[in-house]
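tool_call: predict_structure(chain=1)
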Amino acid sequence: MNPHNKILFAGDPHGNFKPLIAAVHEHKPEAVVLLGDYDLDTPLESCLHEIIDITQIWWIPGNHDFETPSKYKNLFHSALADKSLHLKVIEIAGVKIVGLGGIFLGRVWYPPMQPKWKDKAHYLGMQKLNAKNVDMSLKYKSAIWHDEFHALKALKADILVSHEAPGSHRHGFHVIGDLAAAMNVKTIFHGHLHENYSTVIKKNIHVHGVANTAVANLVGNTLKNGNEMDIG
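tool_result:
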């Protein structure tokens, strides 16, 4: 096996897992990492049943995964629920990978602006002033919260996988590059923006955007090409 193919990174499937499944059968990676936006009509494990026993499957959530209760349940209550990388550093196939799912949301935190809330408890506490029973909506659950983001800076990793893009993309955020630098990350993989590209940002951090349904390897080479389309 080509060592560059021991971990594969899958761009937003939006319900189409066939390119990822084909890439796993062809390249036989030790693990795959999914970059969000699954649009699940059934639990995640049912979509990946062809490969679930032949490779490790890891994932981060995207904004689409919070759109409806069913999409949320089919991911977060699936048999692969414990394979979320969001806000965690996990050693996978000998590589330390940290995950950052979700998106920046103006009503929570939209860099470079200051966060609207210190943390989730602050937000929920303010809502309880007007209602006895308050739960966080799926929209707010999809947000990147400033305190959780900042806490990651104390950790170290080799690769950062995020749904949002760093500042290398015209629709990206420089704070993601800052986070990667603080964690001594060498490579960033991101989805969300439906483009295959590779570039280098400060601290010699390599960035690879992975298009929707595309599959890339550890050095950012596209093994299966996604369909270029508008941002979702």
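agent: The first strand starts at residue 7 and ends at 10. Proceeding to next step.
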